[in-house]
Write a structure and sequence with these properties.
This protein is mainly beta. It contains 9 helices and 63 strands.
């Protein structure tokens, strides 16, 4: 590359940015500003009328339609907004009357004397075709004219229109601001009089005689002369900067001969790092812990400098080891504060410090939420995480952990949510009617990962992610959605539903769905803003057991359905594991890639599932259209495309296993098994393994599909109701989320908060601890003996399992012994030093269809600690 250099980011004197320009984004008034406002712009939602006034910084701006009967209103191109163009896919529109040219007058008060510029974007959001009128821009300017009055000539003031720009083309539904129609004018202000700018259409087209302005920018360089369309795109927080390097690129401004490059870690403190002749520059030394800001100023042949926009990006990094799929780069609370949940109380009207609700709704900024108590939190109202950049670390709770009850919990964007347990239950309102509530939710989330959570006993559905983007839902357990439970809209219907999922792309893998009547899964792709089928779903390596009359159905634009294991149970009455429902509600297509899925037949008591299958009990049936999957049409849907394809639509960004391997590995590690697996989840795993059931629906009589939590004797609550585990006051002296015993082993300072200090692996010290807790772990002292039943950690390997130690501990630490029954004994020397030990164990069994390696963490410490629930242990 010509004149390309590398520059490592180092501490140095920084150059201050120029004063920030005022920028306004005209929004459709009926939508929330957060949904439709462009980054770094001030939102203004204009309501319909012939005049509108608003403040912008120190300016007072009035919009009005000067021609009689013309109106100003806001409008949008919904699909453009959904695809990320929040600036030019909505705006204000002047609609004419009686064939007159549409006009808009903007009166600006408060501009300081001096030279100014005004940029306006003109991108029509209506789907117009044909001739589009251009725009003329003029300024009202006072002039002195001489007029004859009788025999005398006198001078008087008069207003004229000074044309500043003309023949400005309006674009139609262009979804990139740099390519949209633009007018750029410059003018001088000499006094405190208002500046009045007119925008008027040139020529009349009866069909398209509308004038659109999407946004205004004051006092910035002409965008035609500035750097545009950066890579990384502005505010990209998941940039691939492998090796700490990324090549910055941009579209050079018109006539640019040189490019002045500024970089820093704050927007208002940039350092000039290079002058190049090429529109590219490699920067090195990047860290995923930092945000980076950069600007390119363009220099033309005459030496004129056009200052560019300030852009920012952050290098990506896995949310945690083992994060996979399209939400794998979620940031969570990294680099933020630590909030300790110290109370099981919940007060929706007045959240109290120490409660979970306070940490979710009242604390601000990026944050990690840890738990110092165990037991049941009865949510008195829906709990919604509206803020981005939050980690909720359920694995930090003492004892058996936390269980949420009564109301749902909704997640937020850029969130990391792990080891959360929610079992809602059936409740009645004051009129004796069932309160209809769902469970966990990620609707509308972007870059979010939900990992190792357990949810059940819900009414409506246990999980929803409609309209989500870049979501990963992995290693979770959805079970026993309450079936005929009195749903408010379907009082006597069977409505025990697992999940309605959306995403673009949504990754749903290595989950267990057990004993749910339907929606295993329901694909809720929906429609985009233009009415086309939407949604991209990656469904792989899931295990589903004992569904009722619905397995996976619904629809989305593109679906990979790979390596899933559907095991019929005593309540199953639907043989199709996937029914693509083409419902005629949108335009475009819905298509599916089916590969390596298995249906395991159940041919036992056929009273409930009569006619579901014919064949041998336990027989494994591979993908076959018309036998294991199909599509159905309704509402006049015309199918003029290939519904089932032979190639995947997109990569999975994960290790995709065979269906038989997934069955074993999912059942070995699923649900909220930290700090330990509870009896309910153990039962779900065992019933799935053995093809059995314990409880029967009290209304439906369906085996395994309960209608009320009382049908199961409230067993999922009982073991948590009497919990009193609480961290002692000296557990975490500096309140940085890491206990003192850990900090001494990890080499950090227990008396000074160092949770955000980076480790060698680019994770923070707090993240290192959280990741340690997320795998099987044991806390003990020198001289002790640990006895670990490995079968509990590899439950899916139940056919004469064989365990292999992949490494050993050092002789000075102790000895290990593994017997044929899978019992691992670790005898620690009395003089063993305090340290952290990792032991890797691999499991196989006689089926020889899969293997699984898991890491067991051991902490040897002389600092007294509470007895923790050993991961996978069955207390």
């Amino acid at each position: 590359m010509k004149n390309r250099r590398c520059f490592p980011l180092v501490a140095a004197s920084l150059m201050a940015l120029s004063s920030q320009a005022q920028q306004v984004d005209f929004n459709i008034a009926s939508r929330k500003a957060a949904e439709v406002t462009a980054l770094n712009f001030t939102p203004v939602g204009v309501k319909q009328g012939n005049t509108y006034q608003f403040a912008l910084g120190g300016l007072e701006i009035t919009l009005d339609a000067p021609v009689k009967d013309q109106i100003i209103k806001s409008n949008w191109f919904k699909q453009g907004i959904q695809l990320g163009d929040r600036l030019t896919s909505d705006g204000i529109v002047v609609y004419p009357s009686k064939g007159d040219n549409a006009q808009l007058r903007i009166t600006i008060r408060g501009l300081k004397p001096g030279h100014h510029s005004l940029l306006a974007y003109h991108n029509i959001v209506d789907g117009l075709t044909g001739n589009i009128p251009s725009i003329q821009v003029s300024r009202e300017k006072e002039q002195i004219i001489t007029v004859k009055k009788g025999k005398k000539r006198i001078q008087q003031k008069s207003m004229m229109q000074e044309i500043l720009a003309q023949d400005i083309k309006q674009t139609v539904r262009e979804m990139k601001a740099s390519q949209s129609g633009q007018s750029y004018i410059e003018f001088d202000v000499t006094d405190d009089q208002p500046v009045v700018i007119h925008y008027q259409l040139q020529g009349v087209d009866n069909a398209n005689n509308t004038l659109t302005i999407n946004g205004l920018v004051f006092d910035k360089a002409n965008p035609k002369a500035t750097a545009l369309n950066p890579y990384p795109t502005d505010d990209d927080l998941h940039v691939n900067a492998e090796g700490g390097k990324v090549v910055l690129r941009w579209q050079a401004g018109e006539g640019a001969k040189q490019h002045l490059i500024y970089i820093g870690q704050r927007a208002d403190q940039l350092k000039k790092v290079a002058t190049t002749e090429e529109a590219a520059f490699e920067v090195t030394g990047l860290s995923s812990a930092n945000d980076y800001y950069w600007r390119v100023d363009e220099v033309d042949a005459n030496g004129k400098v056009s200052e560019g926009e300030v852009w920012n990006f952050r290098p990506r990094r896995l949310a945690f080891p083992g994060a996979e799929g399209y939400g794998r780069f979620a940031i969570g609370g990294r680099g933020g504060s630590v909030y300790h949940v110290t109370s099981l109380e919940d007060n929706p009207e007045n959240p109290q410090p120490g409660s979970l609700r306070y940490g979710i709704t009242k604390v601000k900024g990026p944050r990690t939420i840890v738990f110092d108590v165990a037991g049941i939190i009865d949510l008195k109202d829906r709990l919604v995480c509206s803020d981005p950049f939050i980690t909720v670390a359920g694995q930090t709770a003492p004892g058996k952990g936390i269980l949420l009850r009564e109301h749902p919990f909704g997640f937020g964007s850029e969130g990391i949510f792990r080891f959360i347990r929610l079992r809602l239950g059936k409740y009645l309102d004051k009129n004796g009617k069932t309160i209809t509530l769902d469970g966990l939710g990620a609707a509308g989330c972007d870059n979010t990962i939900i990992d190792h959570c357990s949810v059940g006993w819900t009414i409506d559905e246990a999980f929803s992610s409609r309209n989500g983007k870049n979501i990963s839902f992995q290693h979770n357990l959805i079970s026993e959605a309450l079936n005929q439970a009195g749903h408010q809209n379907y009082v006597n219907a069977k409505h025990g539903y697992a999940a309605t999922i959306g995403g673009n792309v949504g990754s749903f893998h290595h989950n267990l769905l057990a004993n749910n009547e339907g929606r295993n899964w329901s694909m809720g792709g929906g429609l985009d803003g233009a009415g086309y089928y939407a949604g991209k779903l990656d469904l792989f390596n899931n295990v589903v057991y004992n569904w009722g009359n619905r397995a996976c159905d619904g629809g989305a634009h593109e679906v990979n359905f790979v390596g899933n294991y559907y095991k019929m149970g005593p309540a199953t009455s639907m043989k199709y594991i996937l029914n693509a429902q083409l419902e005629g509600t949108g335009q475009g297509s819905q298509a599916y890639y089916m590969h390596d899925n298995i249906r395991q037949n159940y041919v036992g008591d056929m009273k409930q599932n009569a006619g579901a299958v014919a064949g041998k009990h336990g027989e494994l049936v591979s993908d076959k259209e018309g036998e294991t999957y199909k599509y159905t049409t309704s509402h006049g849907q015309v199918v003029n495309w290939k519904v089932f394809t032979d190639k995947p639509f997109f990569p999975s960004y994960a290790k995709v296993e065979s269906a038989r391997a997934a069955f074993k590995n999912v059942l070995s590690d699923v649900g909220a098994n930290q700090p330990c697996i509870d009896q309910h989840d153990q039962r779900m795993v065992e019933e799935t393994l053995n093809g059995t059931y314990k409880y029967v629906g009290s209304k439906t009589g369906k085996k395994g599909l309960i209608d009320d939590n009382l049908d199961a004797g409230n067993d999922a609550w009982k073991e948590f109701e009497a919990l009193t585990d609480r961290r002692p006051a000296n557990w975490d002296t500096d309140q940085d989320g890491m206990p003192d015993w850990w900090e001494k082993l990890a080499g950090t300072n227990p008396s000074a908060a160092d949770n955000n200090e980076l480790t060698d692996g680019e994770y923070t010290q707090l993240e290192r601890y959280l990741n340690w807790l997320a795998e099987p772990h044991f806390i003990t002292s020198a001289g002790n003996k640990l006895t670990i039943d490995l079968k509990q950690y590899f439950a899916g390997y139940n056919q004469q399992p064989v365990f292999t130690l992949e490494n050993s501990i050092q002789p000075q630490e102790g000895k290990m012994k593994l017997n044929k029954k899978g019992i691992l004994t670790i005898s620690l020397n009395k003089k063993a030093a305090d340290c952290l030990i990792d032991i890797k164990v691999k499991a196989t069994d006689k089926d020889q269809v899969a293997s699984l390696q898991r890491t067991f963490h051991i902490a040897i410490t002389r600092i007294p600690t509470r007895t923790e629930c050993q991961t996978g242990g069955r207390k």
